Amino acid sequence: MNRLIYLINALTLSFCVIPTPCSLADDNIPKTSVTVLVDQSASVTHTVEFADALSSIALAIEDNAFTEWEPPVSFFLSWISSSSPFADPPCGKAFLYKPSLGGHNKSGYLSNRKQLHLRLDECVKRITHKPFKPEPFTDISGAIAVSSEIAKDIPQFKTLILLSDFEEDLPPGTQPANFALYNHHIVMIYLPSQSDKPDFNRLMARLKDWEERFLSTGASHVCKAPVKGLLPGTIKKCLQPPKPAGAS
Questions:
Q1: How many domains is the chain partitioned into structurally?
Q2: Does 160 map to a domain?
Q3: Residue 95, number of CB atoms within 10 A of its CB
Q4: Residue 151 CA: distances (Å) to CA of 33, 65, 147, 168, 213
Q5: Average per-residue pLDDT in the chain?
Q6: What pLDDT is attached to residue 103?
Q7: CA–CA separation, 74 vs 201, rounded Å?
Q8: Lowest mean pLDDT: which of 20-29, 54-63, 123-132, 164-173?
Q9: Type and span of the H or E element at 36
Q10: Position 20 in a domain
């Protein structure tokens, strides 16, 4: 239970950061939300390509936060694990990017691009530079359920980036968590699981099933890209909101 409370508090702090009460600083409430969920299950091989994909995701997020998204922008990274809602976030609590004139901000937020770059780079290294301890099961639905609920009231852009083989494998007797999406923009960064080697079509079928589930539960858009050869530009393209019908 303590881990679940920690996770909820970590995400909630992206909305109201001590010592500034939300009631006194509404301009500090995020207008954009970015959540990255990283698969920690044994079916996923954490290769150099996997690490490079995480770095590409971080670079794309940094660039979009600086050039595209309306601030303040909240960031949170968490695991897809055996029981995702109880997993300790690898990078700690959520953090906020709120640029300020001259890059000086005493409120505890990241206030310039250099600070944001260093924070994201540190976060990636916490995952890629430590020995990988695989989880025996994969609770994708639980990770999405917590992340989507916390970010549901973000008024502008909400994106959920998943780095996974999208093979949900729950402990015996565990039911998949129900989740709802609130106009979230979903980015599926995928790689095959070990069980896909005999038949790669299994992966493609899973991706289709998850895409349909995302759209049926409230996602505004779903974009897919493979881990292999992933570049920051590919992520940036995925993070672009779809143009309205008829727009040039």
A1: 1
A2: yes
A3: 23
A4: 7, 17, 6, 23, 19
A5: 86
A6: 57
A7: 36
A8: 20-29
A9: strand 32-39
A10: no
- β-sheet bridge partners, residue 37: 78, 162
In the three-class reduction of DSSP (H, G, I as helix; E, B as strand; rest coil), residue 188 is classed as strand
Classify residue 21: in a domain, yes or no.
Answer: no
Q: What is the pLDDT of residues 102-145, one digit of tens each?
A: 655 556 789 999 999 999 999 999 999 877 788 999 999 999 99
**Residues β-bridged to residue 158:** 33
Q: How far is CA 248 from CA 68, 236, 240, in A?
A: 19, 19, 15
List, as one string, the DSSP characters of 3-32: HHHHHHHHHHTTTS-TTS-GGG-GGGS-SE
Name the residue range of residue 208's domain: 2-14+30-238
Straight-line distance from the first to the last Cα atom of the chain, in angstroms, rounded to the nearest whole number = 50
**147 phi and psi angles, rounded to 5 deg:** -65, -45
Is 19 among the domain residues?
no
CATH of residue 156:
3.40.50
Q: Do the beta carbons of residue 163 and residue 189 sit within 8 Å?
A: yes
Q: pTM, whole model, 2 decimals?
A: 0.87
